[in-house]
Write a structure and sequence with these properties.
Chains A, B: Its cofactor is Zn(2+). Chains A, B: Keywords: Metal-binding, Oxidoreductase, Zinc. Chains A, B: It comes from marine sediment metagenome. The structure is a homodimer. The two termini of chain A are about 15 Å apart. In chain A, strands 3, 5, 6, 10, 11, 19 and 20 form a seven-stranded mixed sheet that branches. In chain A, strands 14-13-12-15-16-18 form a six-stranded parallel sheet, sandwiched between helices. Chain A has two domains: about 200 residues, Alpha-Beta Complex (Quinone Oxidoreductase, Chain A, domain 1), CATH 3.90.180; about 150 residues, Rossmann fold. By secondary structure, chain A is an alpha/beta fold. The first copy, chain A, has ten helices and 20 strands. In chain A, β13, α5 and β14 form a beta-alpha-beta unit. Chains A and B meet through α3, α7, β17, α8 and β18 of A and α3, α7, β17, α8 and β18 of B. β18 of chain A pairs antiparallel with β18 of chain B, so a sheet runs across the interface.
Chain lengths: ~350, ~350
């Protein structure tokens, strides 16, 4: 079978390779890949910034946002059958630490977890892959065309679920939400927040007429062009948001936004920011603002099976309420043989590339 | 009756004044003040940095950490009688916002709450004060001598309770705690944490033989002299703590400590820091560390009745387990007429001044 693999930590070594089709044990499931989508982590791996090959191998098959169709199930498998559509989870239990034992590998306390397509485990950019049933989430047929978005949606879902869990620290009644960055994570966050009855704002630096802004509006959010309205002006005009999700990949925006969290509010840092530039801040101002306002800032990474399952639910609702919204996030739909185009530089209108395997 | 009052926002105007003894309505309780203790907020008010007089008046009676004895109860009062020992809460409901209506005035969303002895309501540094029963928490006789510590302990209790509530976001099993600053809030935090079975470290910049270090050890914590062991070295030696409580009043320490929170860990900012100096940080480093480690930083201020009630419980346990520990926090015990000494500059061995009214 064909697969896309590279040498991690080396720039642009991605190539098409030919491998034997995986053989399953009686406890495994064989899946035919339908499509995989690309995110910032894939791009970082592509340019050699990140990633690690499985032990004893010299290449890593990339791809961690995938949807596939079950082809064959091992004889001990119950609950899955050929023809089922599935989405695989990404981070895998270390099998050892207390949180992994509690089925929360997204919170693994060890540094040696595996993430398929990212760290020490092959990904899904191959014609077939196999997996254990606990790592596969079934999706209904009507979500297959947007199935590879379930993974990033699960990451956004973890952020939102964590916000609501954390805020159970008191009797919270949020009214407004601000999503910073209208890339795929930001837009999927806005789609999720639409279920919570909040006045939601999506903030980016593209025009009102852009695809990003249009999708944000489809989700029910008000789009704000940050080139016209700085964050402090936004807060003056619309009030300080009760919750903020930071998904720009720009840590300076993250720090600016800490100044406009509402009293008792919460901000989730959801994006990795590249670089290590220095910035001058007033630590007393930030400290006192967080203390006197009972405010929370937290980081969130990865997701577990429960977030995937919730994401499937949200995606179904979204498809009913705003048909086509999710599909529009996939701005670049590519055939397998055109995979290199997914890694080329993109302009501001690009959101996400998807590679189809059939 | 005698009282200590000042003109807020003016330096060193504190003076002894003579007032009429309060008269109670049928819904109020009259309390004879036994003792009040002094914290950083009182000192800030004393030097004119903070505080606001009640509407229509030109002076503020200070003091918000108090214990007293019920002298008289209004005819509609049930549950209190003359002779009861009580501690008053500080922040009072705005009566309007949703969190105050839910009995959490410590989270008041408006800027116009009242805090007795601090903002727009007289404090307890007078021979008598009156209050409504919902603002009074009964304490057992054996806690009277340390009763004025219940208020700061309630503030530390809110921090610890919030930490445990927030961490319900996943299956958390903390092992270690670090308290930064062995002032009264830090030491009371250590006393509270002792109940949770964690390996607790108290960190300050005084010697092993100091009263602060001795009290920290009495609480069950390991004392670390920060002059010998910087925070990064501490983390190398003892591991990154699962929870950190920042109570130094130094925001630079707060930012340094963000680097040593364990994976999935949490840090509570509990102290206001004076000044507005600038500092150079790497926002990407901090952002990525919080994101990839699923870490939380939050601020906590004030406390509500539930935290006072819990603090009474903790204080009882502490008195049984480590008799005399709480009393040692009150390093300067002063008669009412010597009140000025409570506001003089103190050396590093000082923790807290208490003023006795009889």
């Amino acid at each position: 079978m064909k697969a896309l693999a590279l040498k991690p930590k080396q720039a642009e070594t991605l190539d098409l390779i030919d491998l034997e089709k995986p053989r399953i044990s009686s406890d495994e499931i064989l899946i035919k890949t339908l499509s995989t989508s690309i995110d910032r982590t894939d791009l970082d791996i592509y340019v050699g910034l990140y990633g690690k090959e499985p032990e004893g191998e010299d290449r890593l098959i990339i791809g961690h946002e995938a949807v596939g169709k079950v082809i064959e199930v091992g004889k001990n498998i119950i609950g899955f059958k050929a023809g089922d559509f599935v989405v695989p989870t990404v981070r895998r239990t270390c099998g050892d630490c207390d949180v992994c034992v509690a089925d929360e590998p997204d919170m693994c306390r060890r540094d040696d977890y595996k993430e398929r397509g990212i760290v020490k485990a092959h990904g899904f950019m191959s014609e077939y892959f196999k997996d254990a049933p606990e790592n596969l989430v079934k999706i209904p047929k009507e979500l297959v065309s947007v199935g590879s978005l379930i993974e990033p949606m699960s990451v956004a879902q973890k952020a939102v679920s964590s916000i609501y869990k954390i805020q159970k620290r008191f009797s919270w009644r949020p009214e407004s939400a601000l999503v910073l960055g209208a890339g795929s994570l930001g837009l999927l966050s806005a789609v999720i927040l639409a279920r919570y009855g909040l006045q939601t704002f999506a903030y980016d630096i593209v025009s009102e007429n852009s695809v990003k802004a249009q999708i944000a509006k489809m989700s029910g959010a008000t789009y704000i062009d940050g080139r016209d309205l700085k964050l402090d002006e936004f807060a003056n005009n619309y009030g300080k948001p009760d919750l903020i999700i930071e998904a720009t990949g720009n840590s300076s925006v993250a720090f600016d936004a800490m100044d406009i969290i509402a009293t008792n509010g919460i901000m989730c840092l959801l994006s990795i920011s590249a670089g290590s530039h220095e910035e001058t801040i007033c630590p007393d101002c930030l400290n006192n603002d967080l203390v006197l306002g009972n405010k929370v800032v937290f980081g969130s990474v990865s997701s577990n099976r429960s977030h995937f399952e919730k994401a499937v639910e949200v995606a179904r609702e979204s498809e009913k309420k705003s048909p086509g919204l999710l599909s529009r996030i996939m701005t670049d739909k590519l055939k397998f043989e055109d995979f290199r185009r997914a890694f080329e530089a993109k302009d501001n209108s690009h959101i996400k590339s998807v590679i189809y395997f059939e």
